Amino acid sequence: MTEQNTAVAGTAPAAGPEPQGPAAPVAPKDRRTLFAALRWTAAVLVFAAVGTGVTYGITRAERTDVPGLSTEDDGRWTYPALTKPQLPAGAALPFAADNPEGIHYAGLNQLLLPAPAGASADSTLKREKDEAVTVDAFLEEYQAGEREKLKTQLVNEGLRQIAGRGWTTPDGTRTHIYLLRFQGPGFVDAFKGCTVSTGLANASVLEADPVWSEAKRSQRNDLGSDSAAAGPSWRSARDVTLYQEAQPAGDEQVRFGCVQSGDIQALVLQTRKGQAPVVPFHQTLILQSQLLY
C-alpha cells in the first residue's frame, strides 16, 4: 500500500459499563491471542489465493478450529461460509500470473462480505439496485468539508462504481462496508479517503489501531528478509490498514479499516455506543480482505 494508505492498519457484545476515559490497554494475554489469529489467518490467505471455489476457515465461531483461539470466547461473529464468486468465462483471477495488477472481474456486489448470523440490514446505508451506492451517498461517511474534494477526485480520477452493504448486530454495532472499483491500481494508490487524517463524519480524530499495528510489526519481524517471497499473505497483511477513533470518543466509538486490492479499495466502518470491540472488527477486515485476494 502507498504511504497515504498505510499511515499505520471482522464487532462483539460489550458486557461492562461504557468507558469514560482513555481506552484500557489490551492485556498481554489478549494480544497474544490476536497475534496468533493474525498469523494463522495470513497462512490461510496463501491457500485462498490459489483458485476459485475456495471456502475460508475463520468465518464460524468454533474456537477449536483456529490455533491460539481454542479456549475462551473472544466475541467473534459467525459469518456464512465464504466462497469466491464465479468469474466470467475466460476471466483471470486477481493477482494470477496473467493478471498481475489484480483486476477483479467478478460483480462488485459479489465481493462484498455477507452479514454475520443474527445481524439485521442497516437502512441508513443508501443503496440502489445490485447494492450500488452513489458517490454522494458514499461521501456522507465523511465530514462536510471533506466531501467536495473527495468527490472531485473520485469523479475525475478513475472511479468506475461503488457497492455497499450494512448491518447491525444484536449488541448495537453498526457496520458499513464499501467497495470502490477504479480503472486500475494506480488510481487506488491515489485515493485520499483512507488515511489517519481522513475526516470521517462520526469521528473527528483517528489513530492507528494499536493491536493491529503491533501484530503487523510482529509478522514483519517473523518474516524478516523473506517477506518479499511470502506471496499473497504478506501483501494482504500489508495492504490492510486499521484505525480507531481516538479517546475520548463521546457516546460512540468508530473503528475504520481499509483494504487495497488491485483495482478495488474497500472501506469498513464499525460504530458502537461506548467502545467498539476490537476482535470482531479485525475478523471483518480479514474476511473482506480474503474475498478480494
Uncertain runs with pLDDT below 50, 5 residues or more? 1-57, 61-71, 227-237
Major beta sheet summary: 7 strands, antiparallel
Task: Figure out the total of helices.
Answer: 7
Number of separate structural domains: 1
Beta strand %: 15-25%
Tell me the span between the first and last alpha carbons: 14 Å
Biggest sheet strand line-up: 1-2-3-7-6-5-4
Q: Look at the helices and sheets and give the structural class.
A: alpha+beta
Q: Compute the average pLDDT.
A: 78
DSSP E strands, number? 7
Q: What would the principal axes of the Cα set say about the shape? A: globular
Write a concise synopsis of the structure shown.
With 293 residues, this protein is α+β, with helices and mostly antiparallel strands. It has seven helices and seven strands, in the order H-E-H-H-E-E-H-E-H-H-E-E-E-H.
Q: How does this structure look, described?
A:
The chain is globular and about 50 Å long. The protein has helices at 28-48, 135-139, 144-156, 185-190, 210-223, 232-238, 279-292; strands at 120-121, 159-168, 174-182, 206-208, 240-245, 252-261, 264-273. It has 7 helices and 7 strands. It has one domain (3-292).
Task: Draw up the topology in text.
Layout (H helix, E strand, L loop, with lengths): L27 H21 L71 E2 L13 H5 L4 H13 L2 E10 L5 E9 L2 H6 L15 E3 L1 H14 L8 H7 L1 E6 L6 E10 L2 E10 L5 H14 L1
Antiparallel strand pairs: 1-2, 2-3, 3-7, 4-5, 5-6, 6-7
Any descriptors?
293 residues; alpha+beta; 7-stranded antiparallel β-sheet; disordered N terminus
